[in-house]
Amino acid sequence: MHHPIRIAEDFAMLDQLSDGRVNFGVGRGMSPSEYAIFGSSYDTAQARLGEALEIIVKGWSGETLDWQGEHYQYRGFTVRPRPRQLPHPPIYMTANRELDHFQMIGRRGYHLLTLPWIFTNELQRPKIEAYLDALRGAGHAVEDREVFVMYPTYVGITDDEARADARDRWHRWRQFVLEEQALEPGTERYAQLFEHLSYEAMVRDSRAVFGSPETCVRHLARIRDVVKPTHVGLTFHFAGLAQKKVLASMERFARFVRPALRTSA
To answer: What is the 3-state secondary structure (H, E, C) of the chain?
Structure first.
């Protein structure tokens, strides 16, 4: 949905303005409807993304850009300015479903972004292993790469309070996901995903960090031991959850969950 040369120039400028503090994240996105709105093809999105990222990285090198690809063609073009960070800002790329996407990210030496809550923690770990194997196979240092995962989070005073505060909001978010995937109510796939993304299933599988501080510590310890990420991002605000509740949840996380995780590490 974005032009690679425009992206290369925008983020190079941002890296200069921020004194080299940009982390560059890129992904295809999850919503075919968004592609339709912008008049772009979701079916070819992954192939175009890979090619566009090659153009962006080469553009950041400062070299004159000659590119004759499947989706983009340029001759004699130079991206200005160059990024502050050389050879370029750290690159994070998303993969969730297809194993070859994990492997491609590893071969290119990029950091990995993935959302285990879409599937399960147990299913996502072998894909992460494939990414790590691809890193090693391409000669990249595994210890220099990040595996960044993200989970919806609500820390209540008790499990019951967390459920009362967050369940309806989470199910509103579930409805958004189902609509974005263009799934029809009454179909088998809709019913499967409807159940898979229920509050109860998310809590059961530790695909959401929902519950009392003690329960949230157990969720995150399970994520740490099963998924083995280097970094965990937590989405405290989702689907119109009241700001007062969001801030209270964040405070409970900072006061009770994080210190307990450090103790149990």
So the answer is: CCCHHHHHHHHHHHHHHCCCCCCEEECCCCCHHHHHHCCCCCCCHHHHHHHHHHHHHHHHCCCCEEEECCCCEEEEECCCCCCCCCCCCCEEEECCCCHHHHHHHHHHCCEEEECHHHCCHHHHHHHHHHHHHHHHHCCCCHHHCCEEEEEEEEECCCHHHHHHHHHHHHHHHHHHHHHHCCCCCCCHHHHHHHHHCCHHHHHHCCCCEEECHHHHHHHHHHHHHHCCCCEEEEECCCCCCCHHHHHHHHHHHHHHHHHHHHHHC
Statement: residue 264 has pLDDT above 70: no
Class of residue 150 by CB neighbours under 10 A (exposed 0-12, middle 13-18, buried 19+): middle
Q: What is the pTM of this model?
A: 0.89
Residue 247 near residue 166 (C-beta atoms within 8 A) = no
> Does residue 9 surpass a pLDDT of 90?
yes
